[in-house]
Write a structure and sequence with these properties.
By secondary structure, the protein is of the alpha+beta class. The protein is built from nine helices and seven strands, in the order H-H-H-H-E-E-E-E-H-E-H-E-H-E-H-H. The strands form two sheets. It has a five-stranded mixed beta sheet with strand order 5-2-3-6-7, with helices on both faces. Strand 2 and strand 3 form a beta hairpin. Helix 2 packs across helix 3 and helix 5 packs antiparallel against helix 6. The radius of gyration is 20 Å and the shape is elongated. The relative contact order is 0.14.
């Protein structure tokens, strides 16, 4: 179990591993219950296969629980020919679900790090974002988790993460504000201590 998973332990739970994962059939039965609670008949032709489809969708949406970000970042390259400037990925797709309403939040992530003596394949950074996004999340926590994972695995001089996302728990229910996005940031190391470097990152974000 990775360190981040430990941080997601249930509040007040004596043992985070005590809850057993339901079977596929139990999950489909739960969907039938929700269909009936919503006022429909789960035996109706149009929704009779919905439980199967929902469980299949959940397996994809939440596959991040089965992946290890540290493993993705474990293969690094030390031959960087003296490169010592920002490595940044812009506009990484974020498709996640808020842990409060299980509603999607969708947006973009911008991730940078300042390497010391090694770098990682750029696709691995995008994969780390995807792993944390495919878990029940708050945007604030996910931003921190991405920065922590890169810091722990690469030991860079600093990490910068910015996520800009629209939350459907706000746009399709509750206050119904459709054109509001949430921005979260996390800066570590030189990105936190050097305002010029931090501004360079933000300038790259806004290009």
């Amino acid at each position: 179990m990775d360190a981040v998973t430990k941080d997601r332990a249930l509040v007040g739970a004596p043992d985070a591993n005590a809850a057993q994962r339901p079977s596929r059939e139990e999950a489909m039965a739960a969907v039938r219950t929700l269909i009936a609670w919503a006022g429909d008949d789960p035996r109706r032709e149009g929704v009779i296969d919905t439980p199967k489809r929902v469980v299949d969708a959940y397996a994809e949406w939440f596959e991040g629980y089965e992946a290890d970000p540290a493993k993705e970042l474990s293969r690094t390259f030390e031959d960087v020919q003296g490169y010592d400037d920002i490595v940044m990925l812009r506009e990484i797709e974020v498709e996640s679900h808020c842990e409060h309403h299980m509603a999607p939040f969708l947006g973009k992530a911008y991730v940078a790090y300042m390497p010391t003596n090694r770098v990682v394949g750029i696709s691995k950074i995008a994969r780390v974002v995807e792993i944390f996004a495919r878990r029940l999340q708050t945007q604030e926590t996910m931003t921190q988790q991405i920065a922590d994972a890169i810091t722990d695995s690469l030991r860079p001089a600093g990490v910068a993460v910015l996520i800009d996302a629209a939350h459907q728990c706000m746009t399709t229910r509750g206050v119904h504000h459709r054109h509001v996005t949430t921005i979260t940031t996390q800066f570590t190391g030189v990105f936190k201590t050097d305002p010029t470097l931090r501004q360079r990152f933000l300038d790259f974000v806004n290009r």
